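During the no-cost extension, the postdoctoral fellow (Dr. R.K.) reprocessed legacy sequence entries with the updated structure-token encoder. One reprocessed record is reproduced below for audit purposes.
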Amino acid sequence: MNNKLKPAVIGGVLLGLLSAIPFVNWVNICCCAWAILGGLLASYVYVKNSATPANAGDGAIVGAMAGGIGAVIFLVVGIPLALVSGAAMREMLISFMASIDPRQAQMIRQQMEAQGEGVSAVIIQSLFTALLLVIFAVLGGLIGIPLFEKRKGGGAVPPPPPSPGGAPYAA
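Re-encoded structure tokens follow.
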């Protein structure tokens, strides 16, 4: 398991920190891109350091480990950052929307005010995001194996040698 831990830590730290940093974390709007990238990185490092060819199960495991590590980092770093920068990020989003469509911006403002700015809302949203990080990191790990593993696996059994004299082998 140690050969999977190092790649998982590398991928997990990357996805956890990038998912927690305000404004940088907006890339996750694109199908949890930081989580997929973390899983891809973990599978790449695993394939590169593995003595034997990696399979899809290895990619799923290393992706899940990276997602779990990243989710913990996201929760530890992201919740305090979200509490500190949440109001500024909301106002920036609303002003951006106001420049595009003022009516849409007003509806978003009303929805955000209805949700509230409480700690419990931030924690619930962060737990849901952490779950998505794990799921998409597994997906990244699964995608990474066929991308990075170019060695032939020993999965198929070779056919029996031909019988002497060229005659078909009779059982």
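The chain has one domain: 2-151. The chain has a mean pLDDT of 87. The remaining legacy entries will be reprocessed before the final report is submitted.
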